[in-house]
């Protein structure tokens, strides 16, 4: 099983797509968090309510808007094998489909964890920076904020595994990506 997992990890890192999506996600999440935090600090009279909930929602915007990125990477882990017809040599090397899907799901966890960390840190950094520019306490000393950030990382990790499952269910790459985007965006 460890050989299958290491093979799947090598497949993830042998392409450029994962880091391109990671950079796009980081920039997009930082932009959204900064804009949301700036818009909150621009109207301070509306920010006087429950500040911790508002701050937590900005720091975890990756969970609510960026989960499509790790899901796409997970989906492509399966569908690209069918699209490029490398599934045949993969199954000839080890004919157990259960072992193959399990290895893909296990290999998707570190990738999802990486996407979760980068997305959440982007939101934390940009959101806290925008709060600091607006002379608002970013509440980075609150344990509730760090708990929400940790849960955001965990949620994005799970989305990469969900993407692998969707790719296994719909092996056609275009169909699974369209389904994923339609489900997540609508």
Write the layout of secondary structure elements.
Blueprint (H helix, E strand, L loop, with lengths): L1 H12 L3 H26 L8 H9 L1 H5 L2 H16 L3 H7 L3 H37 L9 H27 L3 H13 L1
Helix pairs in contact: 1-7, 2-7, 3-8, 5-7, 5-8, 5-9, 7-8, 8-9
Can you characterise this structure?
The chain has helices at residues 2-13, 17-42, 51-59, 61-65, 68-83, 87-93, 97-133, 143-169, 173-185. The model has no long low-confidence stretch (mean pLDDT 89). Helix 3 (51-59) runs parallel beside helix 8 and helix 5 packs parallel to helix 8. The radius of gyration is 19 Å and the shape is elongated. The chain has 9 helices and no strands. The chain is 82% helix and 0% strand.
Helix and strand string, N-terminal first? HHHHHHHHH
Mean of residue pLDDT values: 89
The N- to C-terminal Cα distance equals 38 Å
Helix content: over 70%
> What structural class is derived from the secondary structure elements?
mainly alpha
In short:
The chain has 186 residues and is mostly helical. The protein has helices at 2-13, 17-42, 51-59, 61-65, 68-83, 87-93, 97-133, 143-169, 173-185.
Task: Offer a few descriptive terms.
9 helices, single chain, mainly alpha
């Amino acid at each position: 099983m460890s050989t299958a997992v290491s093979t799947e990890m090598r497949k993830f890192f042998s392409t450029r797509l994962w880091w391109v999506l990671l950079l796009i996600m980081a920039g997009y999440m930082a932009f959204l968090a900064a804009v949301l935090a700036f818009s909150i600090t621009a109207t301070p009279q509306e920010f006087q309510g429950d500040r911790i909930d508002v701050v937590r929602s900005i720091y975890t915007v990756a969970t609510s808007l960026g989960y499509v990125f790790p899901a796409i990477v997970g989906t492509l882990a399966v569908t690209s094998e069918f699209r490029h017809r490398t599934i045949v040599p993969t199954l000839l090397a080890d004919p157990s489909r259960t072992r193959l899907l399990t290895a893909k799901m296990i290999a998707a966890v570190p990738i999802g964890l990486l996407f979760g960390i980068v997305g959440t840190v982007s939101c934390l950094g940009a959101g806290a920076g925008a709060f600091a520019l607006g002379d608002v306490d970013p509440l980075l000393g609150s344990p509730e904020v760090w708990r929400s950030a940790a849960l955001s990382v965990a949620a994005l990790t799970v989305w990469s595994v969900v993407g692998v499952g969707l790719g296994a269910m719909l092996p056609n790459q275009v169909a699974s990506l369209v389904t994923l985007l339609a489900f997540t965006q609508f």
